Amino acid sequence: MFRRFERISHGILMHMNVGRTLARWFPVPETLLPKSAGVDISDTSVKWITLEASGSGYRIAAYGSERLEPGIVEQGTVRDAEALGKALADIRGRLGATAAHAALPEEGAYIFSMRVPRESPREQIRNMLEFELEGRVPLALSQVVYDLDIIPDASPDEQEQEVGVVAFPEELAAGYAAAFDAAGIELLSLEIEARSIGRALWSPADSPQSDIVLMADFGRARTG
């Protein structure tokens, strides 16, 4: 599942550790969870895929791709939320779901890593991160939404661990949220597409010293 931004912003909800713990021990019945699709939005297209349970695993229930007219999204920024909302509404019936996790281009994101004391509580990491954001992102903290991940490393004996951080201007995230809202699709989360690809190709069960050394995304207009 896509991770959620730490700050509450236009329907993008905080994904708390407590929530994950409760979900693990007291799982929400599947009938109460909205079926969701993974949606990838770039400057030139909207792509989607929906999985459904099948035996002990999953199978593809729906997938597809539609071109976007030039100018709707430019360098990762929504220039015409109404037009993007219409494009999403046009594919809503083919999603096979009523909700979505969206992957966004990296152009509008600020991506960096920092080191924190190992085993630091997430709340403590978030407090340290807010100080770090002031020097890394040329925006006021109130204008930023962000997420963080603990990066697995090959030297667990070190006293520090690496944290990967992704920050978006709140206005940019709000543009995507508005488009999904206009399309009548419940937006559950936003994240950069590189993180989505990485999670799809690598899992925590893999060793940090695995054979994966490079992941490349070849798109119509760019490679990342």
UniProtKB/TrEMBL annotation:
Query: Record's SUPFAM superfamilies?
Result: Actin-like ATPase domain
**What's the protein name?**
SHS2 domain-containing protein
Q: Organism, per UniProt?
A: Candidatus Kaiserbacteria bacterium CG10_big_fil_rev_8_21_14_0_10_59_10
